[in-house]
Amino acid sequence: MHLIQVDSVQRWMEDLKLMTDCECMCILQSKPISIEKDDQNELILSSQHSTCDNLQLLLKRAWIISTELTRIAQKLEKNRWQRVHSMTVRVNCHVHSMINEYNTFTRSSSEEMHQLEKLLIDKCSEFTAFTERCLQTDDEEILKSMKSCVNETLTTVAQYFGQLIELVLTQEAQNLLRQIELSGSLYVTELAISSLFSLAQEGAHLCRIIAKEGGVVVLFKICRQDCFRCLYPQTLRTLASICCVEEGMHQLEKVDGILCLADILTDTSHSEATHAEAAAVIAQITSPHLTFTQHLSSFLENMEEIVTALVKLCQEASSGEVFLLASAALANITFFDTMACEILLQLNAMKILLAACSDRHIVDTPYSRDQVVTILANMSVLDQCASEIIQGNGVQLLMEMLFEKSSSGNPAEAAACERVQQKSAVTLARLSRDPEVAEAAVKLSCIPRLIKLCRSPTERNNSDSVLVACLAALRRLAVMSPDGLEDSDFQQLVKPRLVDSFLLCTNMEESFV
């Protein structure tokens, strides 16, 4: 379950209301505060404004219960019966609160839902009574025999709880999709899509539920209706989230989603925001990290027009975010199929990307530079690429990328900087088979920089992948320009086997004291 990392005090403040409700429920034995139905609804919903808020409250309550169950298992293992019982009482209260809250804001519950709720409540009551009996004896043998029964009851509670949450989330996904599909109102459809997006942000499991309930099919129907054009960006953003799972990808293929995305990208009447979000979906479904893209056969049929539209979007991007989404899609496509690199070369994409890098308002983060250098690295396997690099002053750019450093210290940004350094070294190594590129690299003092990256772990953020790439690039340049290295550098970084040079460089800062 997706949780935002926050300060511990802030987390406590957010959980305080839930804990207070828990105590109230315990004292009142789950009885409503008000007898009159309208008053009760007004009281409980006073702090809740939408389905999205209600779902967030439900998910937070579910997370607390899940955490408590895990802690009970840990305390049970240590035979801390007093703690086990007090936590069991707390779980019992939270379960009652969660069910009451959900039944307050939900419009309808199925018979299966009511049965599961009853099973869970009964099992929680049994669990509480069981742990209370354990407190009434000090006999180790009796406690030992009861422990297996407590463990079994805990497992059953967790099982019922998991089934109930799965059913609740499935029902909420169905309700939202029904609203999107049946409502002709822009306002209602927009709210439903927004709630669906929030649900998808909770993690891969939620995305699987939405996909299984036909979420991808429903959203692509929206993207094929002109009356919902203003909702395309939001709809496409939700699709990108859902398509991170295999079920979403299969659904996309079944409804000719690739063709729809190609139509959107090539339709000049759409806004830049719509084109950018369509690019984000393309980037998601072609991600090299996914292992289930092999069935995207229809992508190859539409690849040329998609790549053409993405290059145009990179060229005309009005912001760094738009450029990042378009270039990320292109970078992934170059991994997806080698033919993409040839198409990019024909479209003068190299020139466009190199020009964009000189505009700090467009290529403004290490993440954007990571996408650009990924494309350059994958294109550099083509022989024709070398002349394009020379003409676009690309060697200078690659040299600058070898100096990429994180300014914030953020781990994600530092990782992006490492990738930029690694891929720029890889690109130099590949392109330096061309004497003209190698000569330009030597003139720009690439060799001293590569040596520094090899010898100084801090310069490469202690990255082994950067080290290997720099050693490879250095060896290629040393062949073309052997006079550019001192004898010690040659003897340590070029002459030995690559693995020996690697081990030498990784052990440079070890202390043997």
In N-to-C order, the SSE pattern is HHHHHHHHHHHHHHHHHHHHHHHHHH
Biggest sheet character: none
Outline: flat
Rg, rounded, reads 29 Å
Q: Averaged pLDDT, please?
A: 85
Number of strands: 0
In quaternary terms, these chains amount to: single chain
Structural class: mainly alpha
Beta fraction? under 5%
- List segments where confidence is low: pLDDT < 50 over at least 5 consecutive residues: 1-5, 20-49
What is the rounded distance between the termini?
Answer: 46 Å
Helix content: over 70%
Helical element count? 26
Descriptive notes:
The protein has 513 residues and is mostly helical. The relative contact order is 0.04. Among the domains are: 48-169, Up-down Bundle (Four Helix Bundle (Hemerythrin (Met), subunit A)), CATH 1.20.120.330; 381-512, no CATH class. It has helices at residues 8-28, 37-44, 51-77, 81-105, 111-135, 140-182, 186-200, 204-212, 215-222, 232-242, 246-254, 257-266, 272-285, 297-316, 320-336, 339-346, 349-357, 366-379, 385-391, 394-401, 411-431, 435-443, 446-455, 464-480, 487-494, 498-506. 74% of the residues lie in helices and 0% in strands. The longest helix is centred in the first third of the chain and has 43 residues, at 140-182. Helix 7 packs parallel to helix 10 (232-242), helix 13 runs parallel beside helix 15 and helix 18 packs parallel to helix 21. Residues 4-49 form the Protein inscuteable homologue LGN-binding domain.
